[in-house]
Amino acid sequence: MQPAVITFFAMPETPSHHRRIRSFVLREGRLTAGQQRAFEELWPQWGLDFVAGEDLDPRRVFGNDHPVWLEIGFGNGETLAALADRHRDRNYLGVEVHRPGVGHLLLRVEELGLTNVRAIRHDAVEVIAGLPDGCLDGAMLFFPDPWHKKKHHKRRILQAAFVEQMARVLRPGGIFHAATDWEDYAQQMMTELSAAKAFENTAGAGQFAPRPDDRPLTRFEQRGQRLGHGVRDLVFRRL
User: Fold this and answer.
1) What is the DSSP string of 115-183?
2) Is residue 106 a contact partner of residue 38, using CB atoms and an 8 Å limit?
3) Fewer C-beta neighbours within 10 Å, C or N terminus of the chain?
4) Model confidence over 44-93: pLDDT tens digits?
């Protein structure tokens, strides 16, 4: 099953003869009145405008030294908001390009009275490249676009270069947690992460992890379970 929203860029545009492969299709829906208000009233407080080359040190962004977790492609933000509400002693940075999803997250932040969330509406790969070394305690990639046709597998975000960037921005002991309901993508994730010397599999070599109790069960995942789609979790620790 493929998620309804594809939520992040893989690489910036380059000239056509050197064009990089993208891992996204941006389906930009119309904003609801509430989401529009969120951008007008809430974005200035909880949103971050990405500027290439500008300092993205989370300690500066949040104004404290609490642990920082990143969610890559947060969709409508329900998982991110739930985790931030559950762990108010952590900071959560979410990256998403889909405007309605960002607006929805901002509304949830307001509703729950959260102060530990910041949202960036930009290319996730560029955002990660702009983060300082070892600044994250955890990173999450839940149900990325599977690009299920074999000829499109090269568009998947979790490739060797992405894993290298995760190793750079995670501190030693930090966690990278991915989840997918596409079996062949899960196997590719396992192969790429297992090959990285900077990570160890918390479930044991070649093993998928049980769904951590801390990962909220989304409506998307519940629907997949009803349809008989299995979900694979991969939880790797930065060495």
Assistant:
1) -SEEEE-S-HHHHHHTSPTT-EEEEEEES-----SGGGGGG-S-SHHHHHHHHHHEEEEEEEEEEES-H
2) yes
3) C
4) 999 999 998 888 999 999 999 999 999 999 999 999 999 999 999 999 99
List the alpha helices (DSSP H) in the chain: 33-37, 43-46, 58-62, 78-86, 99-112, 124-129, 160-169, 183-195, 219-226
Rounded CA separation 23/91 (Å):
27
b/e burial code for range 100-111 (CB count within 10 A of at least 16 → b):
bbbbbbbbbbbe
**Residues across the chain:** 239
In words, the CATH class of domain 21-238 is alpha beta
- Residues with a catalytic annotation lie at 145
